[in-house]
């Protein structure tokens, strides 16, 4: 949880009358601070000087450093003061040295994080999760929301297709929710919290290991460790090598972000607020049309919306378009209200649909604005993975 100093709390919560009262209190020396001898009520110059000093100290206390995404992130760090065992710390130090050896890579990755870091930090903080969790995309995708692995994982959080489907991330020929930073971030944090609660009594390092290797792999490792009289904590498990390095990497990059000067690393300036605005749409819209209406570069819209595979948003798959924050707020409001030449009436739902190669129940449901359960009920489908190409599905009760 983000920690604020006492003065920050006063600033955020105090009314003008409260601040006035604080000023009055600050201008009067306390009894403890008054001289024990030689004090006279007839020394107004001394009183004025003393009062001025107290007021000056009060306002000095109100001078805060400008907030950035990095400063907000550091406030929410929770692991930096933890004492690790010598063996665990050695694993972290190994990765600190690895990252320090290539500062240009850190510069590239953190620069790529510029549009996303403030938003992700806010989402992590809202859940009272350690701020270190916001740096998982550094490890997973180098903060590239369009990243794809040779194994099929995609997006900032590198979801495999099956995992994304299970978490409700829509995936079809027009849209891939794994590439949508808004929806994939929510899904990733849901997944981390869910596994921590379901399997590990809230233990986040074990949940992160399961995020990387799967809960089955981690649970077996925990049982093996416990059978040998060990605690079953992450640091004494025997896991696949990538998973053994996963949490140490996160500790290492967080340590560098916490004190970049110590490690001779320069971090890019990133504003404390997200660099984009959200536009909720109920109608289809191409990025070309949005670019013209908002007077922003189409390439900027494409970078903010990598989940739109065909350069257009279809509300049957996604309803949120991200636009640069400098776009006209008036036009953003008009788009949200559906005032666009491209507004279309949604197509009626057909009575039937023939399954094509590559289809799955999730994509079919999203394409026709239906739920998977609705299609399964109409077609007496017990398992969604039994669909076959050429199969005719009933979509409507009529």
TrEMBL record:
InterPro entries: LysM, LysM_dom_sf, Lysozyme-like_dom_sf, Transglyc_AS, Transglycosylase_SLT_dom_1. Residues 351-395 form the LysM domain. Coiled coil: none annotated. Residues 1-32 form the signal peptide. Pfam families: LysM (PF01476), SLT (PF01464). GO terms for cellular component: membrane. GO terms for molecular function: peptidoglycan lytic transglycosylase activity. The lineage of its organism: Bacteria, Pseudomonadati, Pseudomonadota, Gammaproteobacteria, Oceanospirillales. GO terms for biological process: peptidoglycan metabolic process. Keywords: Signal. This is Transglycosylase SLT domain-containing protein. Belongs to the transglycosylase Slt family.
């Amino acid at each position: 949880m983000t920690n604020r100093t006492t003065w920050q709390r006063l600033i955020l919560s105090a009314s003008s009358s409260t601040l006035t009262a604080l000023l009055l209190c600050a201008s009067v020396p306390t009894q403890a601070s008054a001289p024990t001898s030689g004090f006279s009520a007839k020394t107004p110059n001394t009183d004025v000087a003393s009062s001025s000093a107290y007021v000056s100290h009060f306002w000095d206390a109100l001078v805060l450093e400008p907030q950035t995404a990095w400063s907000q992130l550091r406030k929410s760090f929770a692991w930096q003061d933890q004492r690790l065992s010598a063996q665990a710390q050695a694993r972290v130090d190994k990765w600190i040295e690895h990252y320090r050896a290539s500062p240009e890579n850190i510069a590239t990755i953190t620069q790529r994080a510029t549009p996303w870091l403030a938003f992700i930090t806010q989402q992590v903080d809202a859940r009272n999760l350690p701020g270190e969790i916001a740096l998982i995309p550094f490890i997973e995708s180098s903060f590239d929301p369009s990243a794809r692995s040779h194994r099929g994982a995609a997006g900032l959080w590198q979801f495999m297709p099956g995992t994304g489907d299970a978490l409700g991330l829509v995936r079809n020929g027009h849209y891939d929710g794994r590439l949508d930073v808004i929806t994939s971030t929510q899904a990733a944090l849901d997944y981390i919290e869910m596994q921590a609660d379901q399997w590990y009594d809230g233990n986040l390092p074990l949940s992160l290991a399961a995020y990387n290797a799967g809960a089955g792999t981690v649970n077996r490792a925990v049982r093996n460790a416990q059978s040998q009289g060990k605690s079953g904590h992450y640091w004494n498990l025997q896991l696949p090598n990538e998973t053994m390095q996963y949490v140490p990497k996160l500790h290492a990059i967080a340590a560098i972000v916490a004190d970049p000067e110590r490690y001779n690393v320069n971090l890019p300036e990133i504003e404390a607020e997200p660099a984009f605005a959200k536009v909720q749409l109920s109608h289809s819209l191409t990025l070309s049309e949005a670019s013209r209406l908002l007077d922003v570069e189409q390439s900027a819209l494409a970078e903010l919306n990598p989940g739109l595979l065909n350069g257009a948003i279809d509300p049957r798959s996604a309803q949120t378009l991200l636009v640069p924050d400098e776009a006209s707020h008036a036009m953003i409001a008009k788009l949200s209200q559906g005032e666009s030449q491209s507004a279309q009436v949604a197509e009626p739902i057909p009575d039937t649909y023939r399954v094509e190669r590559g289809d799955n129940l999730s994509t079919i449901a999203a394409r026709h604005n239906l739920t998977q359960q609705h299609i399964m009920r109409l077609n007496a489908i017990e398992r969604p993975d039994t669909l076959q190409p050429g199969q005719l599905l009933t979509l409507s009760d009529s």
